[in-house]
Amino acid sequence: MSSKRFKKLPEKTFELPSESIEKLLPVVKKNCTTKFDESVDLSFQINNKQKKSEINIRTVVNLPGGTGKKVKVAVVCEDSKETEAKSAGADIVGGEDFIEKIKNGDLNFEKLICTPKMMIKLSKLGKVLGPKGLMPNPKLGSVTENLKQAVIDAKSGQVEIRNDKDGNIGVSIGKKSFSDDKIIKNFNAIIETLEKEKTNNTIKGELIKSTFLTSTMGVSYKLKIGKSI
């Protein structure tokens, strides 16, 4: 059953023609009628079915305007690197003892970073970390010797872009309280990254079938991205 608040929102917005993010942002923000600071979210449907293979996108984007979310970052490293990780702002830092805690189901963090040396031991916990999307990955910059930069990126507004088996990608690009300019900069960073992914995956035709803009408790609108990706 829909709430009184939701019933007051516009209906059948999915039937409206697509519009630019500049036009839709004020509308989406107006629909943020809850008491909390709702997220502004993008939803993409990509053309992940190719003739020879299935496209799987998985990368990270550093949003210039940040996400407005506090991310709890954990680091697995050698004793000699613990100070570097802590000074960069890591919430949890540890070595083999910490790996043992993770093995036993202690997953009190949202992002896990690891040094290459410790990754050999951490990689055995794929069944624990994999389903949660927490396994560090060199491609995503979470297996690295440069712990300082990795922690700073994770804390300052780094988001992961990853499609599911049906070709859907969901990502937050800010909060209702953000200025339109800040959200648009984040949006452009996402689009630029998807353009690079299309090139890297040598995708024929369009990568993105459709794009929608919404808020946490709002309704969706078709979004025109202004270019063919």
What is the ordering of alpha helices and beta strands? HHEEEHEHEHHHEEHEE
CATH topology of the largest domain: Ribulose 1,5 Bisphosphate Carboxylase/Oxygenase
Give the amount of beta strand, in percent.
Answer: 15-25%
- Under CATH, the homologous superfamily of the largest domain reads Ribosomal protein L1/L10, rRNA-binding domain
Please, how many domains? Answer: 2
Strand-pairing-aware structural class: alpha/beta
Uncertain regions spanning at least 5 consecutive residues: none
State the end-to-end CA separation.
38 Å
Main attributes of the structure:
single chain; 229 residues; alpha/beta; Ribulose 1,5 Bisphosphate Carboxylase/Oxygenase; Rossmann fold; 2 domains; four-stranded antiparallel sheet; three-stranded parallel sheet
Structural commentary:
This protein is an alpha/beta fold and 229 residues long. The chain has two domains: 18-67 and 158-222, Ribosomal protein L1/L10, rRNA-binding domain (Ribulose 1,5 Bisphosphate Carboxylase/Oxygenase, 2-Layer Sandwich); 73-156, Ribosomal protein L1/L10, domain II (Rossmann fold, 3-Layer(aba) Sandwich). Helix content is 31%, strand content 21%. It has helices at residues 4-7, 21-30, 82-87, 96-103, 116-122, 126-129, 147-156, 180-200; strands at 39-46, 58-62, 73-76, 92-94, 111-114, 158-162, 168-175, 208-215, 221-222. A four-stranded antiparallel sheet has the order 7-1-8-9, covered by helices on one side. The chain has a three-stranded parallel sheet with strand order 4-3-5, sandwiched between helices. The chain has a two-stranded antiparallel ribbon with strand order 2-6. Strand 8 and strand 9 form a beta hairpin. The chain is globular. The model has no long low-confidence stretch (mean pLDDT 91).
